[in-house]
Amino acid sequence: MPVLRIAARSGTRLAYQTAIDRADLDHKHPLGLIMHATGEIDGKVHVAQVWESEEYARDFLAVLEPLLRAEGVPAPDVEVFMEIQHLVTP
């Protein structure tokens, strides 16, 4: 069952993007990733992701979190996993 992950964390968009670039997310899509989107609101980076399962999301986070810490991006202030009951993709 797919899951939606929503997270918000302090830190700059540039620091977050640097970590994402180091993980080469744009070219090396992690197993199970369906969608990844980010934006900055009031000095916090907000991330929305859709994964095939929570396990896939946590596997990728195990790779990403050390890269984020290296850029000075703290752990999420808010992190929610929600099972998706209806998903439409073009």
Descriptive overview:
- This protein is α+β, with helices and mostly antiparallel strands and 90 residues long.
- The chain has one domain: Alpha-Beta Plaits, CATH 3.30.70.
- It is built from two helices and four strands; from the N terminus they run βαββαβ.
- It has helices at residues 13-23, 54-70; strands at 3-10, 33-41, 44-51, 78-83.
- A four-stranded antiparallel sheet has the order 2-3-1-4.
- The two termini are 19 Å apart.
Major sheet characteristics:
4 strands, antiparallel
How many β strands by DSSP? 4
Helix share of residues?
Answer: 25-40%
Major β-sheet strand ordering: 2-3-1-4
How many separate structural domains?
1
The CATH architecture would be 2-Layer Sandwich
Question: How large a portion of the residues is in β-strands, by DSSP E?
Answer: 25-35%
Structural class: alpha+beta
Number of helical segments with 4 or more residues? 2
Q: Mean pLDDT score, rounded? A: 93
The fold-level CATH name is: Alpha-Beta Plaits
Low-confidence stretches: none
Task: Quickly name the level 1 CATH class.
Answer: Alpha Beta
